Amino acid sequence: MTGTKDNQRSRYTKKMIRDSFFKLLRIKDIEAITVTDICRTAQINRGTFYRYYRNPFDLLQQQREQLFKETLAFIKYRFNEGEHTILPAIFEVLKKEDAEVVKASLDRRYGSDFLEKIFASCRETARPYIISQIKWMTDEQFEYFYAFITNGVIGTISLWVSQGMNPETGELEADIMTIVRKSIEQMSQTAKLKEVKG
Predict the structure, then answer these.
(1) pLDDT averaged over the chain?
(2) How far is CA 59 from CA 8, 41, 152, in A?
């Protein structure tokens, strides 16, 4: 019973620290946020902070890693359930997460390339499905197609974050999926023309 209470207390304390950090991140750059700022906002002492994190950058990195793991696990779960689209799964996770965590995780100023890591981790999971759906696509063409689509999506989502995460995720997702479908249609037409000429 004591262990359960300690775990609950630990989770609560980490949540307080995290919430305080993201509250500060709304008004300050991470470089300007100190451990003292976080402790004052969370109403804890420095020793409590250092029990969980080395510094504000470590706190942010742990949050980003957690979001990365959750997103990747959800995408793989969706693939196993027969849903073979990566983007809707990413948006579903992002919609459930705190907006400040999403902004910080996708903001390139803070280091790790969250979306690049997601798409790189999903490449081989997506390959057989995409090739089975786009009959003319070879393995080599898949590499170019995947790079083209994922870099476009990453750029679009990065712009969306930098502009305050507007419009709503559903609208952005629909726009991106329309662009992806149009790209596939255009590539299919080009492949058919090559076959006719070939």
Answers:
(1) 86
(2) 19, 15, 29
